[in-house]
Amino acid sequence: MEAYVFDYGEWKLKKLPDPEAGPGEAVVSLKTAGLNRRDLYIPARRGNDREAVVIGSDGAGVVESVGEGVSAVRPGDEVIINPALRWFTKTGAPPEGFDILGMPDNGTMAGKIVISAEQLEPKPAHLSWVEAGVFALAGLTGYRALVTRGRLAPGETVFIPGAGSGVATFLIQFAKALGARVIVSSRSAKKRELALGIGADRAIGTEEDWQEALADETVDLVIDSIGEATFNRSFSVLKKGGRFVTFGATTDDHVDFNLREFFYGQFDLLGSTMGSREELRELLKLAEEEKIRPVIDSEYSLAQVGEAMEQLKESTQFGKIAIRIDD
């Protein structure tokens, strides 16, 4: 099979042996995969002196074969990959042994993947293959941050800095489905317009004075994944006693903030990472009921993953970047 790999310091398309299912495992013939920002960080985290690892955390396809002891799925089943490995029940933090698919385990940018059958979920019927292939990582990350950690309630207002990421486009749709008011920010007028088009109630510019722009709003919850560039600005618009959830740091991951203002404000500061299988199943149910779909920015073939990664580096996308495996 062909696979897109990071191999001894080099990105390349490489022929690899077809995988075989062992006990408890299934082989999935992949139709689509999704690119995520974590794929860009593999060189720094893996180093240049190790053999090929197949990148990719998201994917969808058809079960080709199963190993001994597998009964939950069978050949011919249409499935999506749950990239949150070995995290099954909703807990306060990931359990020992948790990891994200796509390093150190081989990921989804390949013709096939062998994976524990426990990591497979039925493909939602309302999603196309392209939509299913980009759903799980960003969707699960956003759902846990918004619902489990953020405790969003109907009628509340949530502020999401950075409107164009895959997670942000899910957050907007989830929050609206749950009856909330949604405010986003972006430096791009086009992204602000697109965010309003998928349900955001208000979109402000990154360059604006946020306290002034949102003086007439009561922000109950902030979901931030940008880090140092927006952290204190986001806190400045959050109501006293409000909740602040952070799940990423696309700018500097070290921030300074006024501790006295924080504890006098009675804020809740919450971290979040990915989510459990239990939360993914809750999310899939919500998506089915509300017909929520990923926002697809662009599609590339497996041979074009390098081009797709360049687009992701530039952060020009609005929504998800999909990879067509079966071209």
UniProtKB/TrEMBL annotation:
GO terms for molecular function: oxidoreductase activity. Residues 9-323 form the Enoyl reductase (ER) domain. Pfam families: ADH_N, ADH_zinc_N. It comes from the Bacteria. InterPro entries: ADH-like_C (IPR013149), ADH-like_N (IPR013154), ER (IPR020843), GroES-like_sf (IPR011032), NAD(P)-bd_dom_sf (IPR036291), Zinc_ADH-like (IPR052711). PANTHER family: DEHYDROGENASE, PUTATIVE (AFU_ORTHOLOGUE AFUA_2G13270)-RELATED, PTHR45033. This is Zinc-binding alcohol dehydrogenase/oxidoreductase. The lineage of its organism: Bacteria, Bacillati, Bacillota, Bacilli, Bacillales.
